[in-house]
């Protein structure tokens, strides 16, 4: 986060920050993973840039991210996967976006139970017409707004005929209202195979929560890993932007973490608040830095640090 804020300040677009704690750092200070002051600040400002957070094992929320998404009804998870130069990816020219429903489905973990003998576990999966309609509409509106030409609806309605079946039915109804956007349907297991075989066929993918969680990480693997994977969590009244990777306690404090995922999350944030030119400048500076192999972090094959990588990006912003 320190490196990301240095880069954002170099853009000189007048951003101001309110710093709040969440996760393990907040727990150590307040005894809460998500203090009320943190939630109040997000509600007030309506835009947040979130560092990877550590959740204490065996305590508190199963997921702080799930708690934030529920609290602020951040129903749309937007995960771009874009090829950058000089990565360890087997592919080039990837440019796709996964739009994942964020508030319902199996991923939420509702209705979990374990029998007394420990032999049987149950989970309730709930899909609603409202949740399906608004995520699919978000995907098509986004595609139209940014000039994307195709939306792929990903489902498992051949087997999960009630839940995934409802999602697919509603998605078809919404898609019919966007005749200018090409639309196709694909079963989730075939989607994963096709992403590995011919990823260039995809433009925008829209799907349910658990499938989107898996597919978006697969897509990150197509472009070089989670160090290049940002995510936006967007609701009607609030949006939270992040790097999708975890907090990596094994390298914390060593100064070798790749800042690009959080920086690309900041690109999404800048676009969301209308700073489109600044977003383009930041993204281009990242591309230029990677093209030059300038101070890259070890995950990208370089010998640089988080800070030297950030300084190299700043140099390209000011060039």
TrEMBL record:
Keywords: Oxidoreductase. InterPro entries: IsoCit/isopropylmalate_DH_CS, IsoPropMal-DH-like_dom. Residues 1-313 form the Isopropylmalate dehydrogenase-like domain. The keyword Ubl conjugation does not apply. It comes from the Bacteria. Transmembrane segments: none annotated. GO terms for biological process: isocitrate metabolic process; tricarboxylic acid cycle. GO terms for molecular function: isocitrate dehydrogenase (NAD+) activity; magnesium ion binding; NAD binding. Signal peptide: none annotated. Belongs to the isocitrate and isopropylmalate dehydrogenases family. This is Isocitrate dehydrogenase. It comes from Arenimonas maotaiensis. The lineage of its organism: Bacteria, Pseudomonadati, Pseudomonadota, Gammaproteobacteria, Lysobacterales.
């Amino acid at each position: 986060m320190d490196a990301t804020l240095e880069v954002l300040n170099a853009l000189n677009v007048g951003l101001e920050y309110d710093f709040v704690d969440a996760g393990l750092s907040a727990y150590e200070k307040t005894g809460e993973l998500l203090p009320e002051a943190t939630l109040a600040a997000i509600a007030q400002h309506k835009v947040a840039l979130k560092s990877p957070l550590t959740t204490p094992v065996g305590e508190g929320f199963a997921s702080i991210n799930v708690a934030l998404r529920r609290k602020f009804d951040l129903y749309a998870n937007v995960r771009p996967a874009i090829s950058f130069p000089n990565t360890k990816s087997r592919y080039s020219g990837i440019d796709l976006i996964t739009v994942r429903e964020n508030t319902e489905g199996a991923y939420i973990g509702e209705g979990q139970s374990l029998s007394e003998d420990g032999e049987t576990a149950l989970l309730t999966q709930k899909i609603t017409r409202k949740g399906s309609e608004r995520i699919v509409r978000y995907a098509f509106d986004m595609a139209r707004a940014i000039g994307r030409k195709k939306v792929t609806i990903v489902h498992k309605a051949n087997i999960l005929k009630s839940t995934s079946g409802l999602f697919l039915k509603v998605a078809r109804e919404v898609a019919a209202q966007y005749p200018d956007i090409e639309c196709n349907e694909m079963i989730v297991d075939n989607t994963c195979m096709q992403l590995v075989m011919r990823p260039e066929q995809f433009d925008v993918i829209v799907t349910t929560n658990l499938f989107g969680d898996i597919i978006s990480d697969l897509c990150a693997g197509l472009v070089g890993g989670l160090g290049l994977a940002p995510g936006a969590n967007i609701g009607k009244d609030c949006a939270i932007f992040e790097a999708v990777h975890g907090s990596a306690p094994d390298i914390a404090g060593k100064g070798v973490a790749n800042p690009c995922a959080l920086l690309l999350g900041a690109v999404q944030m800048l676009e969301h608040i209308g700073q489109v030119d600044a977003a383009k400048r930041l993204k281009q500076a990242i591309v230029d830095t990677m093209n030059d192999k300038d101070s890259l972090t070890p995950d990208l094959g370089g010998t640089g640090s988080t800070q030297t990588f950030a300084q190299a990006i700043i140099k390209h912003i000011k060039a």
